[in-house]
Write a structure and sequence with these properties.
Blueprint lengths: L12 H5 L3 H23 L2 H18 L9 H20 L19 H4 L1 H4 L3 H4 L2 H13 L2 H12 L4 H8 L3 H26 L1 H5 L2
Helix pairs in contact: 2-3, 2-4, 3-4, 4-10, 8-11, 9-11, 10-11
Length: about 200
C-alpha cells in the first residue's frame, strides 16, 4: 500500500484559514479514512480510533487560522493525529514512557535488509496467511508507542523519512534510528514465535 502524502494539494489554504466550512468538509472527506486507519493501527481499538479521528479534526479546525504552511496540510493533519494517539496511550497507560532517541547512532549503521533477511525467504503464502498477519499485528502492538508510530508511518503507510520526521517533529536521523530499532524488535518477536512453533525443537527436547 502506498499512501505517501501528496506533495501538492488542491485545497485553498486561505479558505481553510478563514473558516470556510465547505473547504474544511473537503479536507475531512479527503483524509478521514487515512487518519482513521493510522489511528487504528497505533491504538488497536476501534472506539479509540474513532475518538481520535474526531479530536484530530476538531483541533485542526480550531488551529487552522494559525496554520503557517511550513509543511503540507496533510503532514500537519498527520502530526495532530499522531500526537493525539500518543497522548491517548499515555492517558490509558500512564506508566508508558515515550523513549528519547538513542544517542548511540551505531545502530543506524546496521542494514535493515540484513535484519529482516530471514523473513524475506519465507514462502509468500505463509507471509500472507491470516495467522501471520495476526502475529505481525501482535508484534507491532508490542512495540513501544514511539517505535510503533515510526514503523507504521514508514513501513505500513509508506511515507518518506522526511514526511515521517515532519509528522513526529523529530530529525530524519531519529526516524531512521527508531525505525531500525522497531524492525529489530519485530524480528526478535517473530523469531521467538517461530522458534517456539518449530516441531524440530520439540523432537530434540
Amino acid at each position: 500500500m502506498n499512501s505517501n502524502l501528496p506533495l501538492t494539494e488542491d485545497f485553498s489554504i486561505t479558505a481553510l484559514k478563514s473558516g470556510d466550512s465547505d473547504e474544511f468538509a473537503r479536507l475531512v472527506d479527503r483524509y478521514s479514512e487515512k487518519i482513521y486507519r493510522l489511528a487504528l493501527r497505533i491504538l488497536n481499538d476501534e472506539q479509540d480510533a474513532e475518538d481520535m479521528l474526531q479530536e484530530t479534526f476538531m483541533k485542526a479546525y480550531k488551529a487552522l487560522p494559525k496554520f503557517e504552511g511550513r509543511s503540507s496540510i496533510a503532514t500537519w493533519l498527520y502530526r495532530i493525529a499522531t500526537n493525539e494517539a500518543l497522548m491517548l496511550i499515555r492517558k490509558r497507560t500512564p506508566q508508558v514512557t515515550l523513549v528519547a532517541d538513542d544517542p548511540d547512532e551505531s545502530i543506524a549503521a546496521l542494514s535493515a535488509q540484513t535484519v529482516l533477511q530471514q523473513f524475506e525467504t519465507m514462502p509468500e503464502e505463509k507471509l500472507m496467511s491470516a495467522e501471520m498477519r495476526h502475529i505481525l499485528e501482535q508484534a507491532v502492538q508490542a512495540l513501544s508507542p514511539t517505535l510503533r508510530a515510526v514503523f507504521i508511518l514508514r513501513d505500513v503507510e509508506e511515507m518518506s523519512t522526511l514526511q515521517t520526521a515532519q509528522i513526529l517533529n523529530i530529525s530524519e536521523v531519529a526516524v531512521k534510528t527508531r525505525l531500525l530499532r522497531a524492525r529489530i524488535k519485530l524480528q526478535n518477536y517473530l523469531s521467538e514465535y517461530f522458534t517456539s512453533r518449530d516441531p524440530r525443537r520439540d523432537s530434540n527436547d
